[in-house]
Amino acid sequence: MASAKDGSGSLYQRGNVWWVKVYIGGKAHRETSKTATAEGTYEDAKRLRDKLLGQKHRGEISGGHPDRVTVGELLDDVLEYATTNIRPSTEYIWRLVIEKNIRPFFATLKAQKVTTEKLKEYRRKRISEGRSDATANRELSILRTAFHNGRKCTPAKVLSVPYFPMTPETNIRTGFLSDEQYASLLKELPSELKPLFAVGYATGIRLGELKAIRWDQMDLAEGNITLENGETKNGEGRLVPILDGEMSELLTAAKKDRDENWPDSPWVFNRQGEPIKDFRWAWEEACKRAGVPDLKFHDLRRTAVRNMRRDGVPQVVRMKISGHKTDSMERRYNIVDADDIKIAKSLMQAGRQKRNV
Hints:
CATH architecture of the largest domain: Orthogonal Bundle
CATH class of the largest domain: Mainly Alpha
Number of domains: 3
Order of helices and strands: EEEEHHHHHHHHEEEHEEHHHHH
Oligomer: single chain
């Protein structure tokens, strides 16, 4: 076996083929010049050696084996990353999405073989299954994080990240619930969901935050709910009012039920003492019976912001109650509907009459 050392790389010959070996991060990286012609093989190997050294200095190549890394390994790594870097509720969603959708489609593929066209194929599959552009974007963004994390490893598990095709999202919801629809839906919901629904409708607290509320955060006497630092989406605690009437009555009844039947349960919103988790089927069936079949629980958040605005609650206070950190996000929920236009019309007409126009 012929060999030669030139600079910082080694060239050696096996049969009629020249190979290149360079050391990166203390590990040997080998590649073949893939030519078996008698003429110019050594020069081909030198050119390959120079190319590899250039990639090494630019940080484009590592001493690992990125050609062997599968997408499944990247997904395992990103789930480990999620346990310490994102909120538990988001980690739970990532795990569900990865195991149900992303892993079955990509897991056995070599990471370096994933192309933009393959990512488009995944998007087309999800859309054909009835998912929205926004859903496909969120799922692809998880996979993109896995690739970027792999590229940052030492040695790198991914040498380059493919282009991820993100589609403009056209499914931004604008729906909300009227007071009449609220009353109808409240009647149709099972008893354990009524307090959850009433609080969501009145305050706009996110569903994930609602599910986590404990009785020690609930002050029925003072009429406040305390959401603690680190347990909300934006990480900031806040105080939320308990409104007199239906909201207060349902929470008081829930407290009495808890004290009598499962006094050791800390959860405000529960099923027989256990925290409420998935209630999609019960929600969807109740919505159908109430005549609002397309209503999502998140629409309550939008509705609460609109109602607070109509009731004259200042924007800064609305944001404190609903948990919006920026006014741009809060403004997205300020839906202008036909009733708003009617009010505006009457105000405009009154103004013109005052001006004798």
